[in-house]
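Re: that chain you flagged

S.,

Sorry for the slow reply, it's been a week of failed gels. I finally had a moment to sit down with the sequence you sent. For the record, here it is as I used it:
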Amino acid sequence: VYDAFVLFACAMFSKTWIEVSGSSPRDVAKQLRDQQMVMKGHRDVAMITVLNRYIPTAAAFGGMCIGALTVMADFLGAIGSGTGILLAVTIIYQYYEMFLKEQQGQGDSYVFTE
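Prediction finished late last night. Pasting the C-alpha coordinates below so you have them in one place:
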Protein backbone atom coordinates (compact mmCIF):
# COMPACT_ATOMS: atom_id res chain seq x y z
CA VAL A 1 0.00 0.00 0.00
CA TYR A 2 2.86 2.39 0.88
CA ASP A 3 4.64 1.66 -2.40
CA ALA A 4 1.55 2.27 -4.52
CA PHE A 5 0.73 5.49 -2.66
CA VAL A 6 4.24 6.92 -3.07
CA LEU A 7 4.41 6.01 -6.77
CA PHE A 8 0.95 7.45 -7.46
CA ALA A 9 1.59 10.62 -5.45
CA CYS A 10 4.93 11.27 -7.17
CA ALA A 11 3.40 10.73 -10.61
CA MET A 12 0.51 13.10 -9.89
CA PHE A 13 2.81 15.72 -8.37
CA SER A 14 5.04 15.58 -11.45
CA LYS A 15 2.09 16.04 -13.80
CA THR A 16 0.85 18.96 -11.69
CA TRP A 17 4.34 20.47 -11.56
CA ILE A 18 4.67 20.70 -15.34
CA GLU A 19 1.50 22.79 -15.44
CA VAL A 20 2.66 25.11 -12.67
CA SER A 21 6.31 25.47 -13.70
CA GLY A 22 5.77 26.53 -17.29
CA SER A 23 6.70 23.19 -18.84
CA SER A 24 3.23 22.25 -20.05
CA PRO A 25 2.75 21.28 -23.70
CA ARG A 26 1.17 24.68 -24.40
CA ASP A 27 4.14 26.53 -22.87
CA VAL A 28 6.69 24.37 -24.70
CA ALA A 29 4.86 24.86 -28.01
CA LYS A 30 4.91 28.64 -27.44
CA GLN A 31 8.63 28.56 -26.66
CA LEU A 32 9.30 26.55 -29.83
CA ARG A 33 7.21 28.97 -31.90
CA ASP A 34 9.07 31.93 -30.41
CA GLN A 35 12.35 30.31 -31.47
CA GLN A 36 10.86 29.66 -34.93
CA MET A 37 11.26 25.91 -34.55
CA VAL A 38 8.82 23.56 -36.23
CA MET A 39 8.17 19.83 -36.17
CA LYS A 40 8.67 18.27 -39.56
CA GLY A 41 5.48 16.83 -40.97
CA HIS A 42 3.20 18.66 -38.52
CA ARG A 43 1.27 21.89 -38.78
CA ASP A 44 2.01 24.68 -36.35
CA VAL A 45 -1.41 24.24 -34.75
CA ALA A 46 -0.90 20.48 -34.19
CA MET A 47 2.29 20.98 -32.17
CA ILE A 48 0.39 21.24 -28.86
CA THR A 49 -1.44 17.99 -29.61
CA VAL A 50 1.79 16.16 -30.39
CA LEU A 51 3.57 17.54 -27.33
CA ASN A 52 0.53 16.72 -25.18
CA ARG A 53 1.02 13.08 -26.16
CA TYR A 54 4.55 12.93 -24.71
CA ILE A 55 5.18 15.55 -22.02
CA PRO A 56 2.59 14.47 -19.39
CA THR A 57 3.51 10.80 -19.87
CA ALA A 58 7.21 11.56 -19.50
CA ALA A 59 6.52 13.67 -16.40
CA ALA A 60 4.45 10.92 -14.78
CA PHE A 61 7.06 8.28 -15.60
CA GLY A 62 9.84 10.47 -14.21
CA GLY A 63 7.82 11.05 -11.04
CA MET A 64 7.27 7.32 -10.66
CA CYS A 65 11.02 6.71 -11.07
CA ILE A 66 11.72 9.22 -8.31
CA GLY A 67 9.05 7.54 -6.18
CA ALA A 68 10.59 4.12 -6.82
CA LEU A 69 14.00 5.47 -5.80
CA THR A 70 12.49 6.83 -2.60
CA VAL A 71 10.71 3.54 -1.81
CA MET A 72 13.87 1.52 -2.47
CA ALA A 73 15.94 3.77 -0.20
CA ASP A 74 13.32 3.39 2.53
CA PHE A 75 13.17 -0.37 2.00
CA LEU A 76 16.94 -0.85 2.04
CA GLY A 77 17.28 1.24 5.18
CA ALA A 78 19.52 3.90 3.73
CA ILE A 79 20.85 6.47 6.17
CA GLY A 80 17.87 8.71 6.69
CA SER A 81 14.69 8.20 4.76
CA GLY A 82 14.47 7.93 1.01
CA THR A 83 12.66 11.23 0.87
CA GLY A 84 15.38 12.89 2.96
CA ILE A 85 18.10 11.59 0.66
CA LEU A 86 16.19 12.78 -2.40
CA LEU A 87 15.70 16.21 -0.86
CA ALA A 88 19.39 16.47 0.08
CA VAL A 89 20.53 15.54 -3.43
CA THR A 90 18.13 18.04 -4.98
CA ILE A 91 19.33 20.86 -2.73
CA ILE A 92 23.00 20.07 -3.40
CA TYR A 93 22.37 20.01 -7.15
CA GLN A 94 20.62 23.40 -7.00
CA TYR A 95 23.64 24.88 -5.22
CA TYR A 96 25.87 23.34 -7.90
CA GLU A 97 23.78 24.97 -10.64
CA MET A 98 23.90 28.36 -8.88
CA PHE A 99 27.67 28.02 -8.56
CA LEU A 100 27.97 27.30 -12.29
CA LYS A 101 25.83 30.32 -13.18
CA GLU A 102 27.89 32.59 -10.96
CA GLN A 103 31.15 31.31 -12.44
CA GLN A 104 29.88 31.81 -15.99
CA GLY A 105 28.71 35.32 -15.13
CA GLN A 106 32.17 36.26 -13.83
CA GLY A 107 33.96 34.72 -16.81
CA ASP A 108 36.33 32.69 -14.63
CA SER A 109 38.22 29.76 -16.05
CA TYR A 110 37.02 27.45 -13.25
CA VAL A 111 33.75 26.58 -15.01
CA PHE A 112 32.76 22.94 -14.79
CA THR A 113 31.02 21.28 -17.68
CA GLU A 114 27.96 19.11 -17.30
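What I noticed first: The two ends are 38 Å apart (CA to CA).

Talk soon,
D.
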